[in-house]
Amino acid sequence: MNIRSLILWILPPLFAGCAIHPLGPLDKAPKHQADGLTGYKGFAWGISTASLQYEDRAEKPGDPDYFLRDWDLLVQHGKAPFIGPALYSWTDFDKDLEALKKIGVTHYRFSIEWARIEPQPGHYNEEALHRYVTMCRKLKEAGIEPVVTLWHFSFPAWLTDPNDSRKVNWLHPLARERWNLYVKKVVAATSPFVDYYAPENEPNGQVLTAYIAGLWPPCHVLDFDGYKAATIASAEMFRDAAARIKEIKPSANVVSVEALPWWKHGPLDPGGLVYNTVMHSNFDHLDRIYDVCDIIGFNYYYSQVAGPISFLSESYRHGPHFSMMGWSIDPKSLGKQIRYVARRYDKPMMITENGIATSNDKKRIKYLKDHMAQIRNAMDEGFDVRGYFVWSLADNYEWHYGYVPKFGLSSMDPKTHALILKPSAYYYQKVIQTSQQNQKVSVAP
Predict the structure, then answer these.
(1) d(CA 435, CA 375)
(2) Sequence-ordered strand ranges (E) for 92-167
(3) Is residue 27 part of a domain?
(4) Rounded CA separation 335/347 (Å)
(5) Which of 135, 312, 343, 353 is deepest in the core (most CB within 10 A)?
(6) Phi, psi (degrees; rounded to nearest 5) at 219
(7) CA distance between the termini of the chain
(8) What angle (nearest 5°) sits at the alpha carbon of residue 54, between those of residues 320 and 240?
(9) Which domain holds residue 401?
(10) What is the C-alpha separation between 39 and 397, in angstroms, rounded?
(11) In 304-328, which positions are buried (b, 16+ CB within 10 angstroms) versus exposed (e)?
(12) Exposed/middle/buried for 433, CB within 10 Å: 0-12, 13-18, 19+?
């Protein structure tokens, strides 16, 4: 049984006395005028990755710049799979860059590891920061726009109080102060080469998994007070980051990256209690930060029925309509989510992650093609979509799933560490080339 699904099933009855209401409307700015839309011009064709899932360490225990993350502590306690050197993207970034150039992407979203930059409070690894700056410079010189994510799930281990799990990560007494200083330092260093910053990756999904499902640090189960406090704290720290970014580089684009599956009403959900709960999980964080975003970015992988049968059967689903993780393949619901987000927030959008875990690359190609077609259809209707990012460059470490799910457009040769492109990478390459020639998203080159 999928633990997250079980938690989501039992969560609404526990909330019953709290009156989970449907999402209300937002007080938004006036709607864009049609002639203000950018159309295809400047469309971002990208790939997304994350530091913990790709980078090897380099530093050894005892080194002054050796670092630990909260996820490393989870591994040490046997609650997460061993990471190892991942894809060697720290010591051999150039192999990733060569793959990106071959595919022909225009944008590359990657994250900076806070713990690597600040292995202890106030102690900064200047050499590591310089290497991240070099990555940004090399991308820019290759004609690829770096999209820098400042936090992608993992925190420095020093934001974990070993004696009080209520003082962990977002809720640690040092978190907000150190976050602001870290963001200021990283943005000041990278800003000559970076025009897009994503302060946080899927904070809404992270707090749910950490405080309700109990799978990620601090591993609390059904901690509703912690969930609410972490949601508020993460939103406040996002807003802080957006302010620091604009102070240093006013022209930079601040991009949200939220986890937004498409939820459907279920037959065993009287009064819509389950549906209302999961919709709040989708949008409560974004509602708190959308106004400081230049672009609303969101990750879309699947749709799901909000109900007990759907939740409990997730890990048992197989076949052509599901990924190897049991996620339902539903391209049309990406189109629905684009329209919903556009009407709720009235801002330009990017699909910051989209992809499928499968060992069948023909299935991956169809998945990508069908989802990109939905973006094209939405753009034809006038919806302001500015970019699309595939997850991910290569098969990688997928958190508590380990190395089992295969999301990559490539795989790594274990001996040479070279990235071997799959047919789906060449398909994406052709889509990019054809779309740029046609000045329109073209999914069937």
Answers:
(1) 13
(2) 107-111, 145-149
(3) no
(4) 16
(5) 353
(6) 65, 45
(7) 41
(8) 105
(9) 3-13+42-438
(10) 36
(11) bbbbbebbeebeeeeeeebbbbbbb
(12) middle
The closest alpha carbon to 260, from 230, 229, 303, belongs to 303
**Alpha carbons within 13 A on the beta-carbon side of 194:** 31
Whole-number Å distance between alpha carbons of 204 and 13: 21
Q: How many domains does the chain have?
A: 1
CA distance 86 to 55: 6
For residue 45, CA distances in Å to 271, 411, 429, 431 come to 41, 20, 10, 9
- Does residue 122 belong to any structural domain of this protein? yes
Q: Output the domain CATH number for residue 261.
A: 3.20.20.80
Report the amino acid identity of residue 163. N
Would residue 362 count as lying in a domain?
yes
Distances (CA, A) of 6 to 98, 264, 281, 355, 426: 42, 17, 15, 24, 39
The reply to whether omega before 218 is within 30° of 0 (cis) is yes
Query: Does some domain include residue 444?
Result: no
Specify the amino acid at residue 126: E
Q: How far apart are CA 442 and CA 270, in angstroms?
A: 42
In this structure, is the dihedral angle defined by the CA atoms of residues 334, 340, 343 and 344, taken in order, positive or negative?
negative
Q: How far from the centroid of its chain's Cα atoms is residue 269's Cα? A: 29
Q: Which residue has the tokens 């197989």?
A: 318
